[in-house]
Amino acid sequence: MEKSLERVGIMVGSKGRGSNMTALVKACRSGQVPAEVSVVIASGAGSDAEKAAIDLGVPTTVVTPGDRYGERLVEALEGCDWLCLAGFLRILPGEVLQKFPDRVLNIHPSLLPKFGGKGMYGHHVHEAVLAAGETESGCTVHFVNERYDEGAVLLQKRCPVEPDDSAETLAAKVLKLEHQAFAEALSKVIHERSC
Fold this sequence. Notes:
By secondary structure, the chain is α/β, with parallel strands linked by helices.
């Protein structure tokens, strides 16, 4: 009997375009990642990421923060084996971390532990990298714990920071790496757990 595919939930934030979520969905559908995306959870209705998930035909639900937030997230993630955060900027409630021990992955647009932590997302990260005079940047896929960007690192991809880079050009280079790294990391952990 053929083993059924692992089921992945993806949580998206209200600010992003949903490009990492889209890349993960496509990687699963192409067979690059031995999994299927069974739900995308948005923290508010009408975001670009939520619209992108709907356009892809992925079951999508909105779970807004507030009373019983953790419980409601766990209910929405019923049947999932893994959880990926793609542009989701909050600390996950303890109920979710307990439901998915060492099964929650996040992607961050820098080489952690550099340029991580609260408030370090999007252009803020790339501006900080440039301001620090770094010659290299990239992205990090890491496990999620109860603190911002402090979970164990799974995979990093690197790119040079050129003298004429702006936050926008650096962001574009890093985003291209993010789309590769998230799928690679998810595939890697799924393979490791199934061996």
